[in-house]
Amino acid sequence: MSRNAALAATVSLTLMALAAPALSQTAPATRAPADAVTRAGYDRADALSRSVFWTNEQQLNPMDPVAGVKLAQALRELGQFDRAAETAQGVLVVQPANIEAMLEVGRAHIARGQAFYGIAALEQAKAAAPRDWRPLSLLGVAYQQVRRSDDARAAWNEALRLSPDNADVLTNAAIARIGEGDAPSAEILLRRAAAQPGAGLQ
Question: What's the predicted TM-score (pTM) here?
Answer without folding.
Answer: 0.77
